[in-house]
Every structure is written in structure tokens, then in C-alpha cells.
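Project standup — Tuesday

K.O.: blocked on the structure for the chain from last sprint. Re-posting the sequence here as requested.
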Amino acid sequence: MPSTVPSGISGAHATVEAQSAGERWEIEKEEARLIQRSLLPERSLRGETFEVSYRFSPYAEVGGDFADFFLLPDGRVGLYLGDIVGKGLPAALYAALVMGAYRGIHKTDMQSAAVLTLLNKRMLVRPVANRYCATLYATFEPASRTIAFSNAGLPYPLLTSRGECRMLGKGGIPSGMFGGVSYDQYSFELAPGDSLLFATDGVHELRNSRNEFLSAEKLGELWRECGGKTAEESLEGLFLGLREFADGAGQDDDITAVVLKVR
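H.V.: unblocked you, prediction finished:
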């Protein structure tokens, strides 16, 4: 009796295996998405003189952007966001690694420059080939309305104050690239009604259906229009403006924005 399996049966078996593998991959992607969501803030943060909100729009099911904000033991508000080189699941895994390192640092009273210096050292203890992270760490003192931050390669924060827009601070070397890196700290006193936008380059490098990049002038125009709104309303208005600019073109990168509003 022949011991070979009829070709029709073996083909059906291969199809079932392929379907099972595809189903497992879909389940794993959904689990990865849920895990990434669990690392992000659940809701906005509000105090008597401020409010902080964010919006996260990944390029794929999961992304390499991340963000968090929280109250520090000394009463300040801490926040950070970042952008991992690359996209998809590998970038999301590295983002989780960076957030874990951040969470081991941010509950101290360290200044923002020291936080980024220590983060860089920790990411280089066990470096991952071809992976690094542009990130920014900031603290806000509600009583004095003072924002202090250090920047490791993200786009500059965009401030709207009294109807005018301007970029704040300078850049820096992304975390996890080189050893011996130090960072500058920038400090600004904000006024009631001011709005500060922190965003990854998915916002600043957005392109429309005509392959035109979003200009700094256009972004400033969109952000000025959000000046009198709440933090959540500002994000809604900003992302609506970004969709209108894109004119049907899909995003090329993860998009993350964090907004600090001074009441």
C-alpha cells in the first residue's frame, strides 16, 4: 500500500497551517497593541493651573512612538515623549524598553538634563544594534508656571502665547547612540492661556497628496487656532487640521503629540 499522502490532502493541511499561522500573527499583533496601549496614559492630567493631554496615532498596529505624564513627589508635573528609529513591532519593543528605563528615573527630583544623561547611559548598557531613540523630558512647576526641559533629538516644542507662535530650546543627540553625551536644559516661564505642543516628527514631516511637507508656518497656523481651547479640544483641532492638510494621503510615520495648557 502506498505510504504517500494524496496531494490534495497535503495541500489542504498546508492551507490550514498557513491559516493558523496567520491567525496567530493577528492575535499576537492585537496583544502587542493592547500592551502598548497599557503603557500610555489612560486620561488627561489636570490641576488648578494646568492640563496635559496627548494623542497617539501609530503608523501600523503598533508603533515606535511613546509618551507619558505624571505628578512628581515634589508637586511638579513630569512628561516625556519619544520616537524610536524604525516602525512596527520591533520599534514598539524598543519603545517599551525605553519607557521602562524612564520609569526607573523620573520619580526622583533630578533635573531634565540629568534624566536624559542617565537614560542615555542605561540604554547603552545593553545596546540594541541599529536602535536609538529621539526623546524629550520636561517638568512643569504649577506655582511658578515654569517649564524646564531637555531635548535628545525631537522637534522643538511649539509655544503659542498671546497669539504668537515660536519654537523653544534646541536639539540634542538621540538616546542610545553614543556614550559620554550631555544635554542642555531650557527653562521658560509661561503665562495663563499659553499652549505648549510637544510632538514627534510624524507631525512635523507630514506630507499631503501632492507630496508636500507640512511647513513650520502651516503648523504654527494650526496651533494658533487652538489657542483658546482646552488641551483635548486643541488636540482634536490640530489632528483635524493635519487630516485636512494631508488631503487623503496616509501617514508615513507614527504621530504623537502632548499638549500642556496653562489655565
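K.O.: great, moving the ticket to review. Residues 8 and 167 are 65 Å apart (CA to CA). DSSP finds six helices and eleven strands in the chain.
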